[in-house]
Amino acid sequence: MIFQISKELYDQLSETEKYIVDFISENEEKIPFLSITNIADKTFSSSATVSRTIQKCGFQGISDLRYRISQQSDNKNTEESPYAINKILDQIYQEATHTIDNLQITSILKTIEYIKSAEKIYLYARGFTVQIAEEFQMYLQLLGYHTILVSDVQWMKQTNKIVTNKDMIFIISNRNSTRALAESARMARRIGTKIVVCCCKSPTELEKYSDILLLGHSEIIMKSKGLISYSYISLMIIIEIIIKYLSS
């Protein structure tokens, strides 16, 4: 039984909440296949009531519940069951949650202030993060901001000749592993350019030169042929928060 709650807690639940607890306990094997809306429909309640009940019983939410069920069902064939998928869904949920928890509202608002006051916005990125920077650039340009993408190392080496103290640099880097980014930030710092670093690893040399650090949380996606690939979900979440605020 997935719900290990005391009699005192159970007695404090409303009749609807008790019905939800009983339904989940009696149908544990089906829960991985059901959304929170499905459970609400089957218990004649609302999604909010189901979510609240699950949290009262010690879980963070439906994703956490399904993952815990998968943990106690390791003897099942994961190739033919939803348990492996639920574990992945929980990892993605935790990644997004950790990213949001890491972010400081004051840092987001200060970043918005830099963007609005800058003559030019330079987006620095390398590798896979260039794709995220390109999307960020597109949205900023649609909003009327003068945005320039810098992804070539040779251009980064010319940072002191490109940017001014009236501009801002927004650096997007997952693991902060590109030396050229730190060198660019160091040069821009000397000029007096505002620098925002959006990354998923701390501490690193890059953030020493930043005015604002927007720190996300990145998990390993896969390991293949000696290479490790990390998720970029948190970077996209941070970019989306900024764009939605600017466009609101």
Per the principal axes of the C-alpha atoms, what is the gross shape? Answer: elongated
Biggest sheet statistics: 5 strands, parallel
Gyration radius, rounded: 23 Å
Which strand order do you get reading across the main beta sheet? 2-1-3-4-5
First-residue to last-residue Cα separation: 46 Å
Question: What does the model show?
Answer:
The protein has 248 residues and is of the alpha/beta class. It contains 12 helices and 7 strands. The strands form 2 sheets. Strands 2-1-3-4-5 form a 5-stranded parallel sheet, sandwiched between helices. A two-stranded antiparallel sheet has the order 6-7. Helix 3 (36-42) packs across helix 4, helix 5 (62-71) crosses helix 6 and helix 8 runs parallel beside helix 12 (233-247). The longest helix has 20 residues, at 83-102. The chain is elongated and about 70 Å long.
How are the elements arranged and paired?
Blueprint: H1 7-12, H2 15-26, H3 36-42, H4 47-56, H5 62-71, H6 83-102, H7 105-117, E1 121-125, H8 129-142, E2 147-150, H9 153-156, H10 159-162, E3 168-173, H11 179-191, E4 194-199, E5 212-215, E6 220-224, E7 227-230, H12 233-247
Parallel strand pairs: 1-2, 1-3, 3-4, 4-5
Antiparallel strand pairs: 6-7
Helix pairs in contact: 2-4, 3-4, 5-6, 6-12, 8-12
